[in-house]
Amino acid sequence: MRTDSPSSYKTVVVPEVYDGPLYAACRMSACQVRWHLWQNGAERELADPYVAEWPVIGLRPIERAWREGAVRVDTGGVVYDVRPSTGTSDEQTSHPFQQPVHILTAWNPDCRPADLTTNVAAGKRLEQTVQNLGHSWLPASGYGTDLPWAERSIAVVDLDDDQAQELAEQFSQPAFLRWTAHHLAAIRTGTGDLIGEGTVSVTALDRRPCPMSDKPVEKVCRNPGGPWVSSAISYGSFWAGKRKTLLAALGCGVCHGGPADGIGTYAGVGPRFPPSRYGPGTSNSA
What is the pTM for the complete model shown? Predict the structure, then answer.
């Protein structure tokens, strides 16, 4: 049920010359999606009138996009959650590897949003390419700390910066990450320049958290939608689509990709263009 008054919404006019995806912040107080895709008039009643156009307007600078965020690396027995340090405590877990770990992704090449199917296929090509070069890799993810975005990645232990840079460039990525003891560095593809480096806090988890809550839970998440009215059906379908995206990017150690709990069955209609580290950026009045 929408808690805001319908009068608080206004019509948003999308420029005809812009054919890319648009994202808008949801104003439903109970909504967990955070960002809805604006496309062909969808979600108009749920979205804030200030729209982030991407990539023409609101594109986050590459430096900021790669300096911010966290990393999760799954070794098969332990999941290491690597987040920017708050400065209030020392690293909780020591670095688990003797060598630097490079974090690479193939999602959203050229800093442009790609649909989930394209991103997943690109990720598989990256995995196969690294394997063909004789390197092993570990499943990894990059994500915003409040999960406004997430992307599937891989972690490679036996690479140097030059090799990582070549792979990032091959998959049209502007940067890659290097995780060493106490630090996470973002390095620009092409020049090898250091974009940013910060201290990190590392936590060892026994499994990947549920991506819909990002908390250590024991039960499979529940779809809050229902089969009774159109708004409940619409929300349930969008929630299912959001979950599909986050499962592809982050995985889940609770359901392992299985169905969610709840009433009703939803195919999951969105978002077609998952929000990424490059956006949405600053809001712009439409």
Answer: 0.74
